Amino acid sequence: MRKSYLRQVVNLVFFLILQVFIPPMLSLQGTCFMYIGFLLFLPWARHNMIWQLLLSFGIGLLVDIFYQGVGIHACAAVFLLYFRNLFLYFFIMERGKQGGMVTPTFTHLGAVKFGLYTFFFTVCYHVIAFALDHQAIQLLFVYPSRFLLSIVVSNLTILLPSLVAAMLLRIYAQ
């Protein structure tokens, strides 16, 4: 159990470092939200949903501090995690009903389910964040290039490290 918590702390630090330092260096400030990868990879269990929602709120507030937001990322992160847990409970985690925590990773879900899982929730997060940021959902259609670029870049920065981790685990397992 402690190994799982340690892994999650390392995962959180990794995604927050990526979120704070990489987008400004690449001129992607405000269009690349890598930290949602941490929220998507949290272990799923019904009994710890309140703690996960509080954690997502805290992480969203931390990102709001760095991006001078007014709670946009906190709101979008809580929304993301709440609906992620409902989605996992109803559609994906049949194995989770046997007890214990299951982490939605590339290895557990497979390539197609994992890709759809990350893409769907990345789009949901961006719709909420952009709608709150621009105070109207209609502006998503005014700035579609920024919206689509943000989804693609965020998705790639979430999928590539998890793909590399899955390949490394496969190599070390042999």
How would you describe the overall organization of this protein?
- With 174 residues, this protein is an all-alpha fold.
- It has one domain (2-173).
- It has 8 helices and no strands.
- Helix 3 packs antiparallel against helix 4, helix 4 (72-92) runs antiparallel to helix 6 (111-134) and helix 6 (111-134) packs antiparallel against helix 8 (144-173).
- 27% of the residues are buried.
List the main descriptive attributes of the protein structure presented here.
174 residues; mainly alpha; 8 helices
Give the SSE layout:
Blueprint (H helix, E strand, L loop, with lengths): L1 H24 L10 H5 L8 H18 L5 H21 L13 H4 L1 H24 L4 H4 L1 H30 L1
Helix pairs in contact: 3-4, 4-6, 6-8
Short synopsis of the structure:
The protein is mainly α.
Instruction: Report, as a whole number of angstroms, the end-to-end distance.
Output: 25 Å
Largest sheet, strands/sense/barrel? none
State the shape: globular
The structural class is mainly alpha
- Which spans of ≥5 residues are poorly predicted at pLDDT below 50? none
Percentage of residues in strands: under 5%
Radius of gyration: 16 Å
Number of domains: 1
Helix content: over 70%
Count the strands? 0
Order of helices and strands: HHHHHHHH
- How many DSSP H or I helices? 8
> What is the arithmetic mean of pLDDT?
78
